[in-house]
């Protein structure tokens, strides 16, 4: 029942639920499916499922229109999501979000969950890559030549002389409190190497 409470709390506060809780509610957590003698889920269970689907729709609406179109859902559904995204009036947006959640009842949410998780995982991967590039750049600007050797080992096609020159220029700019033009160029060069 802890997941049911989290859903109710999240619904009341307007927070989005993590995917793991949504999955547990919809698929894994069998004890939440309170059925009466006829085998029909309780009204509370239906509400929890609808709230979970609505939260999933809200998560989808936060994506860019290009990503929404790539989600692999029917065109009529994508149109409604894009309409909800374009509405600025609070009450209108709320009603359209509820409508999108209602439309999701007729769709299998698993492909959408997978799509959103892939995007989230891709963002985490990109963030980790950018952090490693920033670490390399900061080390080069600080004058750590072992990082240049590490870069050359990882990317033999890199132009060692160009990277060293950009690092020297970035260090000079930093020492003179000038705008970090060379540091940006160094970051861009390192990013191009890692792609």
TrEMBL record:
InterPro entries: DarP, DarP_sf. One of its GO terms (cellular component) is cytosol. It holds the Pfam family DarP. Keywords: Cytoplasm, Ribosome biogenesis, RNA-binding, rRNA-binding. It comes from the Bacteria. GO terms for biological process: ribosome biogenesis. GO terms for molecular function: rRNA binding. NCBIfam families: PRK05255.1-1. This is Ribosome-associated protein. It comes from Maridesulfovibrio hydrothermalis AM13 = DSM 14728.
